[in-house]
Amino acid sequence: MQETLNALRQVPNVTSVKHLNASDQDEGFNLDSIQDLLANRKKVTLIGKNGCAVFFAQKSNIVLIRSKANVNLGAIDLILDSIK
Predict the structure, then answer these.
(1) What is the mean pLDDT of residues 39-45?
(2) Rounded distance, CA 7 to CA 11, Å?
(3) In which band, very low, low, confident or very high, does the pLDDT at 2 lie, cut at 50, 70 and 90?
(4) Residue 65: CB atoms within 10 Å
(5) Is residue 29 classed exposed, middle or buried when 0-12, 13-18 and 19+ CB atoms within 10 A define those classes?
C-alpha cells in the first residue's frame, strides 16, 4: 500500500495523500460518515471549483487524496485500479 501512496503523491497537482484512521478526528473528519459513504463502493470522488477529493477504500483502509482543480483524475484512477 505504501508504494501506491507514493505513486499517488507523484501525480501532478496532487496536494496530499493521507491514510485515514480513528486518530484523525482532530482534522474534522467523521470517519463513521466516510465509512458509510464508502459502504457500497470502492471510491468516491468529490469535485469542486478549487480542487478534488478522492476517498478510496480497500478492506479497512481509507485513503484521502486531495488535489488542485486541474488534476488528471484518470491517472489517479489508473493507480487505484492497480491495487489488488
Answers:
(1) 90
(2) 7
(3) confident
(4) 25
(5) middle
Residue 26 burial by Cβ neighbours in a 10 Å radius (0-12, 13-18, 19+): exposed
CA distance 51 to 48: 5
Q: For residues 68 and 51, what is the distance between their CA atoms, to the nearest angstrom?
A: 4
Q: DSSP letter for 40, please.
A: T
The one-letter code for the residue type at 82 is S
- The x, y and z cell numbers of residue 30, run together, are 467523521
The answer to pTM > 0.90 is no
Cell of 56: 478510496
Cβ atoms of residues 4 and 18 within 8 Å: no
Look-up: residue for cell 482532530? 26
Q: Which helix (H) or strand (E) holds 69?
A: none
